[in-house]
Please model this.
Amino acid sequence: MNLIGVQYRSDYNGRTQANFSTTYEGKKLIVLGNDNAAFDNLDPHDLWHDRLSLVISRRKVNKPVDEACAYLYGGSWGLSWHEIFNRFLEKVASNKKTDWTEIKENPLNFGENRATHLMADYVVNALIVQKIEKEKGFDGVWEFLNCGPYQKGNDNYHQSLERLTGITKKKYNKAVWELIEKEKVSTKKS
Model:
């Protein structure tokens, strides 16, 4: 931790492994504090965040969309995107009464605990990112990432979503269920 300029932080007491990064004079330093067998064994989820932070401030990006991209492109907590999606199906989307608009406003952790969280809203956003990337390419994903940070009511998010996909706030819940069904079919094929 001293290598990245942290003298002491009580949050890290008792931790036996973690990844840290810092930026200094325009250069990014990533310190792997994991029990990796190989030097190049990076966590692709955190690598996504580190690389994104080189081109846009984390304060400006929409966190749920950022996390959605990290889930898609790098998994999370050692799980692949398909493993995350299957857990999501089992633990959250198995309840047909789930209201995705409510989940958007009140995030739901379906992970094993607070430390190894998996957020339902991030999975939903991953499905939306897939749709945008398929229809508009990464330029569309970039626009969605840049819709602005979280705001109560998510107005900036919903405006960007409607502009990019046609999904209105009113039709959000139905559209999410359709994306889930489509991904179920796609996951079974692979």
Notes: The chain has a mean pLDDT of 88. Residues 135 and 165 are 8 Å apart (CA to CA).
